[in-house]
Amino acid sequence: MNIVTILRSGHWPSLAGAWLHLTISFMVWLMVGAMSIPLVRDLNLSEHETAWLIALPLLGGAVCRVVAGWSADWIGARRTAVAILAAEVATLLWGWLGVEGYQQAVLFASCLGIAGASFAVALPIAGRAYPPTAQGFVLGLAASGNIGTVLILFLAPRWTMTMSWHGVCGLMAGASGITLVVFLLLVPAEGPRQAVGSAGWWHHAAGLIRRRTAYWLCFLYAVTFGGFVGLCSVLPLLVHDVYKMEAVQAGALAAVCGLVGSLVRPLGGYVADKHGGLRTLYIVLPVVAGSVVAVTSPSLFMAVSMMVLSAGAMGFGNGVVFQLVAEWFPKDIGLASGIVGAVGSLGGFGLPMIIGTVKGFTGTYDLGLWIFAGFAISAWGTVIVALKGLHGSRTEP
Predict the structure, then answer these.
(1) Quick count: other Cβ atoms within 10 Å of Cβ 193?
(2) Which of these, 338, 345, 291, lies nearest to 314 by C-alpha position?
């Protein structure tokens, strides 16, 4: 089945709407990291304060994804998606008109976490519009909306050269409002739903997370997706501090890394469809670990190469993990996407916090990157164990 046939096998406007929703939401979600250099200067932030400000949207996204997963299964993914975009507009308008000082900036950054919840609704909207045989590719394509990472990392430093970071918030509020209108036009209204009791849903969620495969996928996604968004969030500040790049150059380099990671994500899902998710992760995870530890190489060429390689490997792994989510939890894709995506966001929160905190004590980014590489090696070890348990079997569990 070729790509055109796959796209025609379902409702492509829903796929397009899901992709657009995720793209603009990723731009909103990673705004603080993209504007970290002017924010540090304007708010006179310490390294610890900077780490918290960059990481808080990722933590907020982790919490909001679980709630969005519940809402998508309870009242509908489309209604939840509309509410998320409306909340983004409101938060960005506050950022444009009212946020002053570090304390308010902390609350603003936390509220931006609502944009991270897009994943828990965009993927179910795309997945339910296509047959099971196309899930890996379609979910990977929808999830490539994390290309919004590229756009905000590339554009925000340029925008801050001509306007304040408050002005960037106003600009993004307008973009989010337009996206809301387009989304409503592309994605059809959902049919009548049988309401699911709130208590029953949370009981179901607790039962799902206790399943070994669910919390294992959470760990794998925390390394791949969490590592991707965490690395992209800290890269502008890292290359500015270590290699003395200006904000625009640092943002462009981070954008290239985000672009590579976003473009290869559908390829990860496609390869996993063909060869199996676990077998694909067996190759990808050691690449993640090996490239991350060389991000601060003395050679700038080597450092840039490893930044691009690590982002690409993590982006590829993102697609692989969600192919496994669709394969192992076909009847609970909204709930599973929300839970797995939430823990992935926690991984993204942890990476900036680890790197920022360790740098505050050691004065270097190296140890924090080594710690993350250790998590990637641990994830690889679990995949090896799982593959040994599948020896002689033709299909994955």
Answers:
(1) 11
(2) 291
Residues 6+ apart with CB under 8 A from 64: 113, 114, 116, 117
User: 297-330 burial string, b = 16+ CB within 10 Å, else e?
Assistant: eeeeeebbebbbbbbbbbbbbbbbbbbbbbbbbe
Q: Distance between CA atoms of 209 and 143, rounded to whole angstroms? A: 22
User: Which has the closest alpha carbon to 361: 36, 53, 38, 46?
Assistant: 46
Closest CA to 138 of 222, 226, 19, 25: 19
Kindly report, residue by residue over 77-115, the tens digit of the pLDDT.
Answer: 899 999 999 999 999 999 999 888 888 999 999 999 999
Q: What is this structure's pTM?
A: 0.77
Which conformational region is residue 244 in: left (phi greater than 0), alpha (psi within -120 to 50 degrees), or beta?
left
Q: What is the DSSP letter of 188?
A: P
Q: Which amino acid is present at 152?
A: I
- CA atoms within a 13 Å half-sphere pointing along the CA-CB vector of 332: 20
- Structure token digits, residue 24: 């603009």
Tokens of 116: 């991270």
Cβ partners under 8 Å of residue 374, min gap 6? 289
Cα–Cα dist 256/109, whole Å = 24
Please say whether the beta carbons of 319 and 143 come within 8 A: yes
Query: CB-based burial of residue 227 (10 Å sphere; 0-12 exposed, 13-18 middle, 19+ buried)?
Result: buried
Distance from C-alpha of 218 to C-alpha of 272, rounded to nearest angstrom: 17
DSSP letter assigned to residue 367 = H
In Å, how far are 15, 235, 238, 394 from 231, measured between CA atoms? Answer: 27, 6, 9, 36
Band of pLDDT at residue 396, cut at 50, 70 and 90: very low
Quote the CA–CA distance of 146 and 164 in Å, as a whole number: 25
How far apart, in whole angstroms, are the C-alpha atoms of residue 134 and residue 298? 44
pLDDT at 8 over 90: no
Tally Cβ neighbours within 10 Å of residue 133.
12
